[in-house]
Amino acid sequence: MADKPTKGLADVVAASTALSDIDGKAGRLFYRGYDIHDLAGRATFEETAYLLQRGKLPTREELADYGQELVRGRELGALVSQNIAEIAEKQKPMEALRSLVSLAGADDPDKDSITPEANLCKAARLVAQQPLLIARYHAARTGGSAVPEADDSLSIAGNFLLQVTGRAPDARAAEIFDECLVLHADHTMNASTFAARVCAATLSDMHSAIVAAIGTLKGPLHGGANEQVMRTLESLDQSQVAQSVRDKLAAGEKIMGFGHRVYKTEDPRATHLRRMSEELSANGDPKYYRMSKDMEEVVFETKGLYPNVDFYAASVYHYLGIPTDLFTPVFSVSRMSGWTAHVIEQHADNRLIRPDSEYIGERDQKWKPIDER
Ligand SMILES: CC(=O)SCCNC(=O)CCNC(=O)[C@H](O)C(C)(C)COP(=O)(O)OP(=O)(O)OC[C@H]1O[C@@H](n2cnc3c(N)ncnc32)[C@H](O)[C@@H]1OP(=O)(O)O
Ligand SMILES: O=C([O-])CC(=O)C(=O)O
C-alpha cells in the first residue's frame, strides 16, 4: 500500500540540482551559489543564461562568443515563420508560444539529438528565439506591421523592448528590463521547471520539455499571476484599494501576486522589483506603484502574506510599455534560461521520474455487460 501523498508535493525533494537554491525562511535566492542580490543590477541576462546553461560566469571572450551564438540562433525557421500569422489570429499569447516553440523544434537543426552538445546549442537558440517569437506574434495580431530589425548593439532585453514597442528603449529602461530577466531566470523546482524535468527524464527532447514548461507557466497560480495582478490593479478604484482588497479577502478570494510555496518572508526578487516600480513611477505616472503599495500593506495586515515575484513585475512591465497580455510571455523569455539548464542537467544524470499514487477509488467491482448497467 502506498503512503499518503503530500498534497501539492509540498516540501517533497524531487530532484538534485546545482542550478539554484532558496532559503525560504531567510528570503534568499542563489544561482549556482551567487546571491541574487549580487547578480541583480550587475550581471546581464546573457551572463546569467550562460551561468545557468554552461556552469560558470563567462569571461569577456566567452560572453562575446555566446552573444554571437545568440545572434545566429535567433533566426526563425520556415515552419514557424509560415504559421505565425494564423497562430496569432487564433491563439492567446501563451498558447501561441506553446505552438510556436513546438514548431521551432521541428525547424531546429539538432532536432533529432539529445546529446550534451546538441542540448547546449538548442538551449542557446531557445533563449535567443523566445523574444522574437513574442515580437512577431504581437506584430501579426496587431495588423502585421514589420518587427523592427534587431539592433546588435542592444542586449536581449533592449531588443525585446525595441521589437515589441516599436521604439528604441532609453538606456535605463533597457537596464531595468534586463534586471527583470535576471531576477526571473531560475527558481529551483517550481511547477514549470518540474514539468520540463519530468518530460526530459523520459529522454524526450528539449523542445518537448520546454513546451510542457510553457503550458505549466501559463496558469494563474504560477507565471500567469503577473497578468492577473495588472488586471486587478486596473479594476480597482485608486481611492478604494484597501477596502476592495479587504472585501476580496473576506469573500475568500485569492489576491494574485501574493503568497509563495517556499518563501515565508519577503521574496528577494520582490525587493528589487518594488524599487524598479518606484523608480519608473517617478516618470509622471505614480498610480499603479502607489496602488501596489496600498495592496501590499493591506494584504500583509489582513493575511500576513508577502508579494511574490509576479506582484511588482506587473507595474514594472506596464511602465515599460509592455502590453498586459504579454507579461507571462515575458516571464518565459527569462525562465527559458533556467528551463533549458534544467533539461541539460536532467539529461546529464537521468532516471525516469515516475512517482507513486495513493489509490482512493472503488475496489472489487463486478463487471456488468453494457445492457445491464
Ligand atoms: C512565479 C510564481 O509562480 S510565484 C506565485 C504566483 N501565483 C500567485 O501569485 C497566485 C496567488 N497565490 C497563490 O495562489 C498561492 O500563494 C501559491 C499558489 C503561490 C502557493 O500556494 P500554496 O503553497 O499551495 O498555498 P495555498 O494556496 O494552499 O495557501 C495557503 C493559505 O494561504 C492562503 N493564500 C495563499 N495565497 C493567497 C493569496 N494570494 N491571497 C489570499 N490568500 C492566499 C490560502 O487561501 C490558504 O489559506 P487557508 O489555509 O486558510 O485555506
Ligand atoms: O518557485 C515557485 O514556486 C514559483 C516560481 O517559479 C517563482 O517564484 O519564480
Automatic annotation (TrEMBL):
Cellular component, GO annotation: cytosol
Pathway annotation from the record: Carbohydrate metabolism; tricarboxylic acid cycle
Keyword Acyltransferase applies: yes
Signal peptide: none
GO biological process assignments: carbohydrate metabolic process; tricarboxylic acid cycle
GO MF annotations, alphabetized: citrate synthase activity
Swiss-Prot/TrEMBL keywords: Acyltransferase, Transferase, Tricarboxylic acid cycle
Active site annotation, chain numbering: H260, D310
Protein name in the entry: Citrate synthase
